[in-house]
Amino acid sequence: MKKAVMTSFFVFLIALTVALFSETKWLTFINVSFYIAQPLVIIGGFRFIYEKGFFDVTISSFKRLFRSPVERYMADEQRDDASKKQWGATLFFAGLVVTGATLIFSYMN
């Protein structure tokens, strides 16, 4: 949760920096925040789904299908989940927070 808040703060800081050099500061701040938040939501959402194992069954089925006969008799694959870095949820929820804030800010304008 702390990483998502820091990421959201960083997005707002970038948008504020860009808006300071613009003529319409408030509108530019809202637009830049929204434009930065949307890739965070999309990439973070896809990564979050992948990290939760949604595609694991499909991937393992394709690996078994295209394995050579010699490899089929070898030991099963062992996954090491501890080494997997999980950053999808952070990006996804930070993007949602920024998107929600920009929607609120746009109605205040």
Give an overview of the whole structure:
The protein has 109 residues and is an all-alpha fold. The longest helix has 27 residues, at 25-51. The chain has one domain. The two termini are 29 Å apart. It has helices at 2-20, 25-51, 56-65, 69-72, 88-108. Helix content is 74%, strand content 0%.
**Structure class:** mainly alpha
Whole-number count of domains: 1
Number of helices: 5
Roughly what fraction of the amino acids lie in strands?
A: under 5%
Structure summary, number of beta strands:
0
Give the terminus-to-terminus CA distance. Answer: 29 Å
Overall body shape: rod-shaped
Sequence stretches where pLDDT stays below 50 over 5 or more residues? none
List keywords for this structure.
109 residues, mainly alpha, rod-shaped, DUF3899, transmembrane
